[in-house]
Amino acid sequence: MKIAVLYGGTSGEREVSLSTGKGMIEALENNGHDVKGIDFHPARMEEIINLEVDLVVIGLHGRYGEDGRIQGLLDMLDLPYVGSGVLASALAMDKAKSKQIFSLNGISTARSEAYTISRYSSTDEIAKLVTEKFMPPFVVKPNQEGSTLGLTIIKDQGQVKAAIESAFQSDDTVLIEDYVAGREVTVPVIGKQGQEQALPVIEIIPKSEYYDFDSKYKPGGSEHIVPARLSEEVTEELQKQAVLAHQLLGCDIYSRVDFIVTEKNEPVILEVNTLPGMTPTSLFPDSAKEVGWSYEDMIEKFVELTISQNSPKTKS
What we know:
Shape: globular
Largest sheet: 6 strands, antiparallel
Radius of gyration: 19 Å
Low-confidence stretches: 312-316
CATH superfamily of the largest domain: ATP-grasp fold, B domain
CATH class of the largest domain: Alpha Beta
């Protein structure tokens, strides 16, 4: 097949996306496909508009890749692509909106509040409201950003204003949520809509205090334990909730769902990643290995599922 891989982009996760794209391109070429790599930039839209391929694989992360915008363009061009569509991508990227959907459907989330800068006179006003409503420890982060960029764990109220200003550099809405202590785990989900399955749960042990950008992407930054050291009952509950969260947002083909497992062994959902990292240190490939899939096998499964699924995104 003729396949285009979109990678790079302009978000704060560009470097991660470059690595993801490289891995995807090599895997697809090893699988015998004719691959065209495109370092995507909104100023070079003609590269997408003039594409003549059978399928697009999206290796972008963050804005213009994971938020539904590139998916909307590909839909208008009638170019089939791997992964979730416009609405699911946008909902998953909007942490506040997705948390509302999860809560309404019985999936536990941390207590949170979103603040949009245009609704307030200053960051001082927002900081005052936050300190009145939340007690340390709590989390301040951009509402629409990935890889923990702009995230601060507040241990002292004196940190709040600076943390809010840092988060606003990435988004015009910040999300404040209670800090949930426990083990960080993640659950990859794969399958056609209505036939999804959860892969083995991964337990993440960061070498730093919490699972930050360096822990995620620097070699040796964290340890991945697959399968996670959890009881069968907790594992099954995590997998069940991961598939449900994927379905509630309308995700397609694959996603990765992040949780905290509390000291009481209760799962608390963090977010759904519609385009999770596919770098050499990424989580989804580690879980796929546990069920016997090589990186190339995993990428080919994404392609095969997309082609076989009867959906508006795929040409008949």
